[in-house]
Amino acid sequence: MLEVSDLHVAYGKIEAVRGVSLSVAPGRITLVLGANGAGKSTTLKALAGLVPAQRGSVVLDGAEVLGQAPHRLVRRGLALVPEGRRVFGPLTVAENLRMGGYTAGKRLLESTLAKVYDTFPILAERRDGAAGLLSGGEQQMLAFGRALMSQPKVMLMDEPSMGLAPVVVDSILAGVRQMADDGIGILMVEQNAEAGLDLADEVVAVARGEVVYTGASGDARNHASVLRAFLGEA
Ligand code: ATP
User: Which key words are in the record (predicted)?
Assistant: First the structure.
């Protein structure tokens, strides 16, 4: 449903992404692994239309979408859950969620909101409270919920477990699996390689802007280039 081929992204002379190809299928979780500076975040940002790509192809649901503006990509079914969650602290949980649903009509918005509350019951409990008062894990669920409000086919997520306590990480990653089980294709960058490998279906490992491994997550642990670069083993 999302097919990325030969994506190139540069910041001036810095070639951050050099020919990345990957795919995301409905109901599947694709994990992007790589060391700091490997180009993971830049890949997600380019796919979300937040930084321009120099060349390549991004096909979403059969249509070429590279170069489209972020709001158009959201309408087409691509949602980004940004690094650091970026919820609007002074607004309530419900207001944050409604902002995520700005592309939907009013009736659809209410039914989608109900579905999000169903998926993340804590958000329903806290719906009238300020988002800034939620815990880190709850804010991450809110960031997921806000993205779900646009009824995405594909979700891009940048380090959803960052800064969370290990026990909270488990529940966040369980939330990711639940969204995939609902049929959403997920492309996830995750520093926590062990937990990410346990969760993911497919793995794409990148180093210096290039893909060095693509395969099933179960096989990835045995692959030398994956281990060398990301798990600190030979
Ligand atoms: P991290 O895990 O540290 O976030 P990453 O794999 O996500 O790393 P990117 O953030 O995509 O890597 O960075 C890839 C390269 O692009 C790095 O060399 C980085 O210094 C550079 N870079 C990233 N953002 C910018 C920017 N806004 N301007 C210039 N160079 C940038």
Answer: Amino-acid transport, ATP-binding, Nucleotide-binding, Transport
